[in-house]
Structures are given as C-alpha cells and as structure tokens.
C-alpha cells in the first residue's frame, strides 16, 4: 500500500490511515493498546454448580480480581470446566456494577466443537472471590433425546447388590444427570435418594432387601425421559430339616 494525501494524514504526531490494508512485518512493535488481563481458572471444575456461588479465592486471588476490574483493556476468562467436561470455557468478559460478567462459548471433551454458551459472574464479597454460573445454554443438538439403562432386568438374592447404569442420549448431550427411584424400597433399596442427581458416568447401586419385584426407574434431568430396570429378589431357600439325632425330641 502506498500513502497519499487521500488515504494518509499526520497531525502533530497522530497518524491516521484511511482505507486500505496495513501489514506488520516481523519485528514490528505496536504500542498504546490496552493489555488484556487473563483470569485463568486452571481447569477448575464447576460440576453441577449451576446457580450456586463457589469460593474460588485459592485459584483467583483477590488482587487478580482487582487488577482485572481496574483494567482498561479486555478481560479474558479461560480454563473453567463445567459439567465434567475436560475442555473448558474461554471467552471475553466485561466489567459490570456487580462484577466481571462473561458469556463464553463452551467446548466439549473431544475437540474444539462448540456445545453451548456459559454465562458466569465473578465477584468480590467479604474479601473473597466468588464465581456463579447463571445460565448454560446448549445448542439444539446437545439437548437430551432419551435414556436407556443396563441391565434392564436383574435377579438377586437377599443381601446381594447390582450396578445399574444409565446411558443418556445423545453421547454429546450437555446435561447427563439422572434421578433414580425404586418402586419398593422394602424389596430393592438404592444408594441415592430420589431427590439427588447422578451423571451417567456413575452407576446406581441396587441392594436386594426383601423378596419380591421392584422397578428401578432412571429419569433424565433434562427432558424427563425414563428407562426401567425390573429387579426380582428371590425368596430365601428354606434351611435343611433338623437332624433328630442332634435335636432329639424332649422326653415326656
């Protein structure tokens, strides 16, 4: 590009390029631009913490937060994992009256494909740094479409246990949490209450308590899809008849 009076002006040290392209060769320096502040969560896992306030002072010191809040340049959020994915959030943040606010694209486990948008707030309270996620907006094809369980039938003796696994579909679904319930706790009890959530990377443990049949139901947190495992608990086998020689009839 060549400069002329039409596309280049200089006034008292201020130079303005009007139109055209500017290229910077190796070794060139640009000064005067604000330096961004990077807030690095270093892989901190925000598992199942939606709408909760989490103390992250050990990861993001108070002074780091204050430096970012005073910075005239951009704020970069990175290294924050969510919903047990290994590749976390990285995006730009802005300063608000409440704290540092970010809407960041979120990547999945196995590459850089975007699976949604995470909204978070980083703020200072009582000399501690807190982070809160206020919304996670998955893209349409990352919503849950169904669930299955394995096994879908089991036979146990009293006192025995079995692992029952849920498989949330599709494999790229964001919210993989499931609620479990037994139709009859006197027959089959579970190691989780009906009010708790468990992701499908962890099985539920069913324990045979009494003879009969119970249905163990898995219900997805996203969409309310259900799948069932029928568990039959056997009657205990009767013990052997007593040996009359070892247990003689009492004399009359």
Would you write up a description of this structure?
The structure is a single chain. The chain starts with 7 loop residues before the first strand and ends in a 19-residue tail after the last strand. The longest helix is centred in the first third of the chain and has 9 residues, at 62-70. It folds into two domains: 33-140, no CATH class; 143-233, Immunoglobulin-like (Sandwich), CATH 2.60.40. With 252 residues, it is mainly β. The protein is 4% helix and 46% strand. Strand 5 (75-81) and strand 6 (89-95) form a beta hairpin.
Assembly type: single chain
Would you count the extended β strands for me?
Answer: 18
Rg, Å, rounded: 30 Å
Strand content: over 45%
- Give the uncertain stretches in residue-range form: none
Portion in helices: under 10%
The span between the termini is 124 Å
Counting helices, strands and paired strands, the structural category is mainly beta
Globular, elongated, flat, extended or rod-shaped: what is the shape? Answer: elongated
Main sheet: strand order: 3-5-6-7-8-9-4
Number of domains as seen in the coordinates: 2
Main sheet? Answer: 7 strands, mixed
What integer is the average pLDDT?
77
| Series of secondary-structure elements, N-terminal to C-terminal | EEEEHEEEEEEEEEEEEEE
């Amino acid at each position: 590009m060549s400069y002329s009076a039409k596309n280049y002006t200089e006034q008292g040290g201020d130079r303005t390029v009007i139109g055209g392209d500017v290229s910077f060769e190796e070794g060139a320096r640009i000064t005067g631009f604000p330096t961004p502040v990077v807030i690095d969560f270093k892989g901190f896992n925000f598992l199942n913490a939606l709408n909760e306030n989490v103390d992250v002072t050990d990861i993001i010191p108070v002074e780091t937060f204050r430096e970012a809040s005073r910075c005239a340049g951009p704020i970069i959020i990175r290294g924050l994992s969510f919903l047990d994915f290994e590749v976390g959030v990285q995006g730009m943040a802005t300063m608000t009256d409440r704290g540092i606010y970010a809407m960041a694209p979120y990547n999945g486990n196995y590459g850089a494909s975007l699976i949604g948008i995470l909204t978070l707030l980083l703020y200072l309270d009582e000399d501690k740094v807190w982070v809160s996620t206020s919304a996670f907006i998955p893209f349409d094809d990352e919503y849950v479409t169904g669930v299955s369980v394995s096994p879908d039938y089991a036979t146990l003796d009293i006192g025995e246990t079995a692992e029952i696994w849920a498989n949330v579909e599709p494999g790229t679904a964001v919210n993989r949490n499931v609620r479990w319930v037994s139709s009859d706790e006197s027959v089959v009890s579970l190691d989780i209450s009906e009010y708790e959530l468990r992701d499908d990377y962890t099985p539920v443990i069913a324990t045979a308590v009494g003879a009969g049949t119970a249905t163990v139901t898995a219900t997805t947190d996203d969409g309310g899809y259900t799948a069932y495992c029928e568990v039959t608990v056997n009657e205990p086998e009767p013990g052997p008849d007593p040996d009359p020689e070892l247990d003689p009839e009492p004399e009359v």
